[in-house]
Amino acid sequence: MPRGRYVSHKGRNRHFTSPEELEEQRRQEEKKLQWRKNKGEETSSEEEEEEPKASPGSGSESDSDSDSESESKEGKAKGVENLIQVENPNRVQKKTKKISQINQSLDSDKPELSRREREQLEKQRAYANYQKLHAAGKTDEARADLARLAIIKQQREEAAKKREQEKKQKELAQQKKTELTQKALGKKS
Hints:
Blueprint: E1 4-7, E2 13-16, H1 19-39, H2 45-50, H3 60-74, H4 99-108, H5 115-136, H6 140-185
Antiparallel strand pairs: 1-2
């Protein structure tokens, strides 16, 4: 069945494929897949040439698809690439390393720290050292804190003694008062 033609507003011919042709192309693709499965998926470039080709009216789309597939499978070289060995200096090629080399490099190479990271580590070490000295009471701030604590303890002890004395005085006063009231009432204890 011939392809349909359509003239666009720019005066160019537009081609479209009829649904029947698309269905025929799909069937051809299915046949190819079946043929490959029957062959055991051992297709080589020679076997691909022996495959049944799409019908001449199937269009250039399926031909270009099969060409691109075969190029991607084979990794076909472009231009004179297969004739001239060119090495791109910007391309980084992965080098295979043995596990022993990797372990040695990890052990020997410690990552160099940036200035900010080094300063941060120094701050942390200095702070930890300060906390240790502070806990031991060797810093000026720790001595001042301990002196303040000693003064507060002394004030609290004095306040506790004073409260204790006032409590005893109140008890004695209460006792005398009860004794006086007992006497006044004429009761003997």
